[in-house]
Amino acid sequence: MTTDTFENPSDTSGDHLRIEPSILYFGTPVALVSTLNHDGSPNLAPVSSVWALGMLLVVGLGATGQTARNLRERPELVVNLPSADLWEHVERLAPLTGRSPVPEGKPPGCRFEADKFGASGLSPLGADLVDPPRVARCPLQLEARARHVRSDDSGDHVIVEAEVVRVHAAEDIVVPGTHHIDPARWNPLVYSFRHYFGLGAERGRSHRSQTPPREPVSPVRS
Length: 222
Ligand SMILES: Cc1cc2nc3c(=O)[nH]c(=O)nc-3n(C[C@H](O)[C@H](O)[C@H](O)COP(=O)(O)O)c2cc1C
Prior knowledge:
The protein is mainly beta. The chain has a single domain (24-172, 180-197), classed as Roll (Pnp Oxidase, Chain A), CATH 2.30.110. Helices cover 9% and strands 34% of the residues. Strands 5-4-8-13-14-7-6 form a seven-stranded antiparallel sheet. It has a three-stranded antiparallel sheet with strand order 3-15-16, with no helix packed on it. A hairpin with an 8-residue loop joins β11 and β12. The longest helix is centred in the first third of the chain and has 8 residues, at 66-73. The radius of gyration is 19 Å and the shape is globular. It binds flavin mononucleotide. Flavin mononucleotide (FMN) binds next to β5, β7, α1 and β9.
């Protein structure tokens, strides 16, 4: 899209406008991806371009970042899912890169930080099967191994396919006696057009839900 095609939002059919947004961050959960640097220290980076197909995770990364570099060289990671109350810790990481010197193309104000955990105020916790650490306060922690790390056609992005090899879930979000996450108690941090949100009240359930039926309740907020 070019800005000279439509200078102002214009009418299409009905009540929609043709617009040219600078970003398409339409509201996806935030993950904190931990990887290992070449010296064995951990890196930690917020991402919102991550989704799951069964036990396969697909992660979208900027090609120049330290996370992409680490995964090309050491294909292990932990995808840590923060709850909504941790948004300020996530935002502390937003202007930081683990890569030095700061690569061209990073946004203005981006600076190198060797100790991302310290900068975020979050603590590392050893993983079971991979070398990068978990983030202790994240209620969901997915240990994974990257199977494919490849550039997109533009060369600007790296698409990572990673297999989840272990799942850790905080006890208070697991349905007692089962392996199911209780969606009424799990309140992911959602990134929507550069703003942070939690979930509102439950609206309904899929016909495939395996959690026991009960009255909808509001997500737990801590
Ligand atoms: C909430 C949030 C979501 C982000 N989502 C992504 C993403 O999906 N992919 C990505 O490459 N960068 C994303 N970023 C930007 C990276 O965190 C940022 O480029 C950071 O410098 C990467 O660190 P690294 O260079 O140490 O890997 C996001 C930042 C924030 C704050």
